Every structure is written in structure tokens, then in C-alpha cells.
Amino acid sequence: xxxxxxxxxxxxILCIFISSACQPTPKSPIVIEKGDLSEHIAxxxxxxxxxxxxxxxxxxxxxxxxxxxxxxxxAPLLQPASSxxxxxxxxxxxxxxxxxxxxxxxxxxxxxxxxxxxxxxxxDIEKEIIFYKELLFREENGLDxxxxxxxxxGDEGPxxxxxxxxxxxxxxxxxxxxxxxxxxxxxxPADSDLPQTDYVLKDMGSSYQLNLRAVDGSAIATxxxxxWEVGSNFYISLSEYDxxxxxxxxxxxxxxxxxxxxxxxxxxxxxxxxxxxxxYMAPASANLGESCNxxxxxxxxxxxxxx
Length: 307
Prior knowledge:
Order of helices and strands: HHEEHEHHEEEEEHEEE
Radius of gyration: 36 Å
Mean pLDDT: 76
Low-confidence stretches: 1-23, 28-35, 46-54
Structural class: alpha+beta
Number of helices: 6
Helix content: 25-40%
Shape: elongated
């Protein structure tokens, strides 16, 4: 055993000498003397860095801990030049007439016939007739005009534009409103009588809008694109009569906790977004209700989530 150890040790020493001999000669000293440190930092600093900051030129801190160790800081506060600071600029992009709008519509209604919704049709007026007939029924039976249940004290009901004499009873004015819409229904065009859209936004004075009616068999939807002076909106509303107020029974639920039906619904929404180029956002939470669900998507800008 002694003989073996004797031969291994010289070999190791030889390897160390050989390895050390192969290291390149450094172009600058590896260890900087204490007195040279400030000069070295000045040489390595970026030329665009501006060390001046009015009122906050230096950071000074001094504290001695129970262990006897002291921390002393006396350093300039450096402010990067504006050309070096990372900045994310997020601006609203208004809708643009043409293929982009058609692509968004086709993501939701790929096989529908899409019309320019520039006047009220029988579908629109029928919805109003049903709405006011339900209000009339509730008025005649002493029911709450919003919920259909017992009247809540102090509830004024929904805002309504009623026809007839302003001094008349609510019942008479509701009946007059229904009769007005029934007359309009007789001469109103059907959805199929509308011209097909050219996907061009129209100047409406305070905004640019494109109002559409998509018809696919019994499925009918109203689709609106609006460019306001500041910001834009995209609306889809189904023609089926539903005047219920959206109430959420659970809010901000994580996507992974959704039941199977809502998980499938969320997947469909995400697929529609991806088909119109919004593939950079991920589902973050959901508000759940009996008549509707709201899904929130976020993306990160410089590490911060943006809904």
C-alpha cells in the first residue's frame, strides 16, 4: 500500500503543474488593490450612465450589528440614460375596416349570413313586444317589474320609454307602447331583407361603427364594432329574449376548478380568441352565474399581468 501511494502522489502533483502551465496570461490584474477599486469601476462604467440625480445623489447607510459586524454604504445613485431604460408602450388599436373584422365575425359564426344591421327588423321589434308584454303582465298582477316576484319596497323598476299620455296610468302606457310596436312590426323588414355587409365602419358622428346581424338558421346575433374617440368596443348579443339581470353566484374562480361544462365553454372561448390572432393571453379566472359566465384573460407586460 505504501508503494502505491508513493506513485499516485507524484502523478497528481505533475497534473497540477501541467494544468497550471496551460492557463492564459490575464490581460488585467485578477486582484484589484483596494486603492484602485474606484478607478476600476469608473473605467468599467457605461458612458451613457448619468450619475446625477438632483436631491438623491448618494445613498448613505451605516449600521453596527450585535455581532460586531458593520455595514457602511456610501454610493452614488445611478440613473440610466433614457435610451437604456426598458419601456413597454401599450396603446389601444382601433378596429380597421375589411378582412380583420370579417375574421372576427367568422370566428364566432363561420357559416352565418352577415347583414348590415342599419334598421330595426321584425326580429328586433318582436323582442320589444315580448319585453313590454311581460312588463304589462307584471303590472296587472302587482308583481315586481324586474324580478317578477313580490314588489320590493322602493323599487322603481327598469327605465322605460313608454308611449301614450304621460298622465295616464302605467298600465295604459304599457298597452300603448305594445300597440305602437305591433304597428311597426307589420312594415318592418325581415333580417333576410337587409343588405349584406361590406365590413366598412361608418361615421356616426361621435364614433365609427359597424352594426351587423348574423343569421345561421335559427341562431341570430347582433354584432357591433365601435371605435370611440378613446378606446374601442366589440359586442355580441343573441336575439333570444332574455331580460334577466346578470348575477354571479361565484366570482374569480381559477380555471382549473371549473366543472366540465364550463371548462368546455372556456376552451371554446379561448379557441375563438386564438382564431382571430389573440393567442398571447391565458385564462386567469371566471365569474360564474346562472344565466351567463364571464371569463378573464391576462397577458404579461414586463412581468405584470394585464387583463
